[in-house]
Amino acid sequence: MRIERIMVATALVFFAIGALCGFFLGKGIYQPTYDEKVTRDTVYVVDTITDYQPMPVDSARVRYVTRYLPKVVTDTVVKTDVITCHDSVLVEVPITSKHYQSKDYEAWVSGYEPSLDSIKVYRETQYITEHITISKPPNKFELDVIGGVEYNINNKRYTPYAGGELLYKPNRLQVGIRGGVEYTDKVEPVIGATAKIRLY
Fold this sequence. Notes:
By secondary structure, the chain is mostly beta strands.
């Protein structure tokens, strides 16, 4: 009985060592990385801004031009002004430059008593939406508690077993160690290596 107790204690020690190795290797040494995927959606929106009768921020007389204008005579009978096409008068016309400005536009107009009646600004706004997807890669270490019953064809006997298994999974190949206890005629500790290939 004393030997069996020693074997059981040895199996439990191996199981505890495997559990601790799996914990520290899985949580301490292996630091999982994250794959970050960024997708962007771009939407363009055009806003129409209309400003009626804008006020100039600056006005300056820049020059004079000389023009011949039709002469206006007064009809004393009906008391109306009549423009005759035969006579003309030489007139100096002032040319004024006006400056219009706001946060959305800037414009200049010039002429004789010029004015900017209205202006439309087609402002384009760009909206960019980022979608960030973060995926965590699978853990390369796996610690399992295993148990079951094995059937020995040669001895034609069932052998129950229990223990733990620590696997390292770099890709489809999985390798690791396993330890535990099994019962044939008595409780015996078992330890071994494991190699697996994942098919799908």
